[in-house]
Amino acid sequence: MSGKVYLVGGGPGDPELLTRKAWRVLQSADIILHDDLVSQEILRVLPSSAKIVNVGKRCGAKKISQDQINELMIAAARDGKVVARLKSGDPLLFGRAGEEMEALRQAGVTFEVIPGVTAALGAAAAAQISLTHRRHASRVVFITAHRSEGLGLRARGFEWVDRPLAQDSTYVIYMPGYSYGELSAELQAEGFRSDTPCIVISRATTRDEVASRTMVGKLEQCPVVAPPALIIVGAVVADSLDQEAGEKQFSSELSAEVLDLALQHPYFHSSGRSGAE
What we know:
alpha/beta, Cobalt-precorrin-4 Transmethylase, domain 1, five-stranded mixed sheet
C-alpha cells in the first residue's frame, strides 16, 4: 500500500495565513514532520490524531540529518501513510525542498508541493511595506545570509547581483544570523550606502513579532532578534515610515475565533481521511 507525501508551506506564522489546502492536508495527515521554525500558533492547531515529529535542523543544533528526514518520509509513505512535511514559509524558497523532492522521486514515492506565504511577504505585510512601491522599486531580490562553512553574503549569491547594486530594487535577506555588525560591513562593501533604510523583523505575523527600523550603517546597533527573522533593505522601508500609524498588534482573539469556526465548518470534515488525497 502506497501513501503520499505533502511538502506543506506553513506560511510566516499566523495560522490564518495557511491556505485552505494546507489546512485540509494537515487535518488529514497521519504523520506531520515539522521544522523548528514553524510557529507555536500553528503547532497548537495540528490534529491530535496525527503523529507529530519535530525534525528541525537549526544551524549549529541539528537534531536529525536531512538523510534521516528523507528516510522517515519514504518509510511512512511506503507504509501507506499520509505524510505532511510542514515547513515554515514556502517549501520552495530556502526550504531544502529540492533535496527532499529528489529523494522522493528516486524512491518512487508520490508527493505534492503545497505553496505557502513566504516570510518576505508576511513580514512586508505586517510592517506595511510595499516591496515594489512604484516610486522606489521595480524588482525584489531574495537572498540568504546563512553561513555555510564560514561563507558570507558573496559566497551565498551576492556575486550574481548587478554591480553596482540596483538602487531601484528591494533586497530581502533571509536568515540574517546574529552578527549584524558583520552583515552591515558586508552590505556596505557590496555597495549599499550607510544611510540605506532597512528593517529587521522577527516572527512576523505572530503575537511575538518584533520589528526594528534602522539604516544599513547602524544595523549593528539593533537588538538581536529571535529566528525566524529577516531584513528588508531599500527605499521602500523609508516610505513605509512616512505612513506608519503605530505598531501593529497581533489579534489573538480574532485568530482564535476564526480557527474555532474553521474547525467546526463541514468543509474540513466532509471528505474524511481521503480529503488529503
